[in-house]
Amino acid sequence: MNLWNRLKSIYDRFTDVRYVVIGACTTAVSVGLVALLTKVFHWEDNLSNIVSIIAAVIFAYVANKIFVFRSHTDSFGALAAEALKFFAGRAVTMLVEVFGVVFFDSVLGQDVVVAKVETQILVLVGNYLISRFIVFRKKPPRDAAEAGEEPPAPGGGGQ
Q1: Sign (positive or negative) of CA dihedral 85, 90, 91, 96
Q2: The pTM is what?
Q3: Which of 13, 64, 113, 121 meets the CB 3.0–4.6 Å disulfide criterion with 68?
Q4: How far apart are CA 113 and CA 32, in angstroms?
Q5: How does 55-84 read in b/e, with b if 16+ C-beta sit within 10 Å?
Q6: Nearest alpha carbon to residue 130 among 92, 96, 102
Q7: How confident is the model over 93-140, as pLDDT tens digits?
Q8: Phi, psi torsion values for 110, nearest 5 degrees
């Protein structure tokens, strides 16, 4: 098996690896956008940070749903509930991110991009825990029919 196939096999088998890959992409969206808005377009630091967080959260929901947790919803209501839990969880970590960047940038006087990267560590861990154990957790099937198994034959004992 060549290196590419080995890496793909690991990626396919491990949710944690997929989360790190998508998390890195989400961080790149967030940090890249704040850098673009502040350094190229000269937007105010905190406004740039909030806009970058919103863009990154939308990207993260779609990417985590499809590529990381491979979540499937059967109805619009289930999709809306899943998205609501995801966005609520991200709202909590957004507060950590906003106040973390404000603290490092405005209080400690660090560059906004450095402050942004520092807060990403806390945000990444918090987001993973919320996504894995609250938003996209696998629910056990309620019965054999939901699991796609054949029900036991009447009067036929177990194996």
Answers
A1: positive
A2: 0.66
A3: 64
A4: 9
A5: bbbebbbebbbeebbebeeeeeeeeeebee
A6: 92
A7: 989 988 999 999 999 999 999 998 889 888 888 888 999 899 998 776
A8: -75, 160
| 51 and 33 Cβ atoms separated by less than 8 Å | yes
**CB-based burial label for 115 (10 Å; 0-12, 13-18, 19+):** buried
CA-CA-CA-CA dihedral for 130, 135, 137, 139, to nearest 10: 150
Contacts of 38 (CB under 8 A, 6+ apart): 44, 45, 48, 112, 113
- Write phi, then psi, for 41 (nearest 5 degrees): -95, -5
Burial (CB count within 10 angstroms: exposed 0-12, middle 13-18, buried 19+), residue 108: exposed
> For residue 101, which phi and psi values (nearest 5 degrees)?
-65, -40
Q: Residue 118 has which token pair?
A: 């520092």
Distance between CA atoms of 71 and 32, rounded to whole angstroms? 27
- Residue in the structure block whose two tokens are 């603290």: 103
**Distance (Å, rounded) from C-alpha 65 to C-alpha 72?**
8
CA 28 to chain centre: 13
